[in-house]
Amino acid sequence: MPTSFVLVTSDPEVEEELMEELIKVEGVKEVHSVYGIYDFIVKVEAESLEELKNTITWKVRRLSKVKASVTMVVAQSRTS
Protein backbone atom coordinates (compact mmCIF):
# COMPACT_ATOMS: atom_id res chain seq x y z
CA MET A 1 0.00 0.00 0.00
CA PRO A 2 1.61 3.31 -1.04
CA THR A 3 2.31 5.56 1.93
CA SER A 4 3.68 9.05 2.29
CA PHE A 5 4.52 11.51 5.00
CA VAL A 6 3.61 15.12 4.28
CA LEU A 7 5.31 17.89 6.26
CA VAL A 8 2.87 20.80 6.49
CA THR A 9 3.35 24.46 7.43
CA SER A 10 0.44 26.67 8.48
CA ASP A 11 -0.17 29.98 10.19
CA PRO A 12 0.04 29.66 14.01
CA GLU A 13 -3.51 30.86 14.64
CA VAL A 14 -5.14 28.08 12.57
CA GLU A 15 -3.25 24.99 13.79
CA GLU A 16 -6.11 23.40 15.78
CA GLU A 17 -8.59 24.02 13.00
CA LEU A 18 -6.26 22.66 10.32
CA MET A 19 -5.52 19.54 12.35
CA GLU A 20 -9.26 18.79 12.43
CA GLU A 21 -9.59 19.37 8.68
CA LEU A 22 -6.59 17.17 7.85
CA ILE A 23 -7.78 14.14 9.83
CA LYS A 24 -11.12 14.22 7.97
CA VAL A 25 -9.43 13.83 4.55
CA GLU A 26 -9.95 10.36 3.11
CA GLY A 27 -6.61 8.56 3.09
CA VAL A 28 -5.12 10.55 5.97
CA LYS A 29 -4.29 8.02 8.69
CA GLU A 30 -2.43 10.17 11.22
CA VAL A 31 -1.85 13.86 11.93
CA HIS A 32 0.86 14.90 14.38
CA SER A 33 1.44 18.46 15.54
CA VAL A 34 5.21 19.01 15.85
CA TYR A 35 7.71 21.70 16.85
CA GLY A 36 10.26 23.02 14.39
CA ILE A 37 10.18 24.24 10.80
CA TYR A 38 6.98 22.31 10.07
CA ASP A 39 3.73 22.35 12.03
CA PHE A 40 2.38 18.90 11.18
CA ILE A 41 3.45 15.48 9.96
CA VAL A 42 0.59 13.87 8.05
CA LYS A 43 0.61 10.15 7.18
CA VAL A 44 -1.32 9.38 3.99
CA GLU A 45 -2.11 5.92 2.60
CA ALA A 46 -3.84 4.90 -0.63
CA GLU A 47 -4.54 1.86 -2.79
CA SER A 48 -2.31 3.10 -5.63
CA LEU A 49 0.42 5.66 -6.25
CA GLU A 50 -1.97 7.61 -8.47
CA GLU A 51 -4.57 7.77 -5.69
CA LEU A 52 -1.87 8.80 -3.21
CA LYS A 53 -0.76 11.61 -5.53
CA ASN A 54 -4.34 12.80 -6.01
CA THR A 55 -5.09 12.79 -2.28
CA ILE A 56 -2.01 14.85 -1.49
CA THR A 57 -2.32 17.22 -4.44
CA TRP A 58 -6.06 17.83 -4.49
CA LYS A 59 -7.18 17.21 -0.89
CA VAL A 60 -4.29 17.92 1.50
CA ARG A 61 -2.32 20.66 -0.26
CA ARG A 62 -5.45 22.51 -1.40
CA LEU A 63 -6.78 23.10 2.12
CA SER A 64 -6.88 26.87 2.55
CA LYS A 65 -4.93 26.80 5.82
CA VAL A 66 -1.96 24.89 4.34
CA LYS A 67 0.79 27.42 3.57
CA ALA A 68 3.42 24.97 2.31
CA SER A 69 4.18 21.26 2.26
CA VAL A 70 6.92 18.76 1.53
CA THR A 71 5.97 15.20 0.57
CA MET A 72 8.08 12.10 1.19
CA VAL A 73 6.82 8.91 -0.45
CA VAL A 74 7.87 5.79 1.46
CA ALA A 75 10.19 3.54 -0.56
CA GLN A 76 10.57 0.79 2.04
CA SER A 77 9.55 0.30 5.66
CA ARG A 78 9.83 -2.06 8.59
CA THR A 79 7.95 -2.17 11.85
CA SER A 80 8.76 -3.87 15.11
Structural account:
There is one protein chain. The chain has one domain (3-73): Alpha-Beta Plaits (2-Layer Sandwich). The chain is 26% helix and 35% strand. It contains 2 helices and 4 strands, in the order E-H-E-E-H-E. It has a 4-stranded antiparallel sheet. A hairpin with a 6-residue loop joins strand 2 (28-33) and strand 3 (40-45). The model has no long low-confidence stretch (mean pLDDT 96).
Briefly say what this structure is.
The protein has 80 residues and is α+β, with helices and mostly antiparallel strands. Helix content is 26%, strand content 35%. The protein has 2 helices and 4 strands, in the order βαββαβ.
Instruction: Provide the CATH architecture.
Output: 2-Layer Sandwich
Give the number of helices.
2
Strand content: 35-45%
Overall strand count: 4
Spatially, the strands of the biggest sheet line up as: 2-3-1-4
CATH superfamily: Lrp/AsnC effector binding domain/regulation of amino acid metabolism (RAM) domain
CATH topology: Alpha-Beta Plaits
Mean pLDDT across residues: 96
